[in-house]
Design goal:
The chain is an all-alpha fold and 147 residues long. Helix content is 77%, strand content 0%. The chain is built from seven helices and no strands. The N and C termini lie far apart (68 Å).
Length: 147
């Protein structure tokens, strides 16, 4: 059997990628819609009332909100700045920012469809825990403490 040319291999790879993208479009659209709804109905000013218990609780709460309100990282910086201005602790905002970028709960269905459920859930849980570690490190570096 003759070997396929590089052009034929590239064309076949492009065709497969295009088919995968086409299959993913409905899921991607749903993710974008969910993110938009969450941002609309849960603005930064309403989130701030959940903080103020302890550094540990605030960090966990920040990570939970960041996980749920996933989206473009530039948006997270703007929301994080507003949270700091409104009095949220730095550990909570750090966990929020890290989880926003890393976890993305609303993206898990799309990720599960493309990469497998076990991978998506493992990545999300590891990302959530990592966001808490990042908040701890930032707190220590800035002279704070978690407790």
């Amino acid at each position: 059997m003759p070997e396929k040319s590089t052009l034929q291999k590239s064309a076949k790879a492009f065709q497969k990628a295009l088919q995968a993208l086409t299959r993913s479009l409905p899921i991607i659209g749903t993710v974008v819609l969910l993110i938009s709804l969450l941002k609309t109905y849960l603005p930064a000013k309403s989130i701030i009332r959940f903080f103020g218990y302890s550094d540990t609780a605030d960090t966990a709460i920040g990570a939970v909100f960041g996980s749920i309100l996933a989206g473009n990282s530039i948006n997270s910086y703007i929301i994080g700045e507003q949270l700091l201005k409104d009095g949220a602790p730095i550990t909570a905002v750090t966990a929020f920012l890290a989880a926003w970028v890393i976890v993305g709960v609303v993206q898990i269905p799309a990720e599960s469809a493309e990469l497998g459920r076990q991978f998506a859930l493992t990545r999300a849980v590891a990302g959530f825990l990592f966001s808490m570690v990042v908040a701890l490190v930032v707190s220590i570096l800035l002279g704070g403490s978690l407790g």
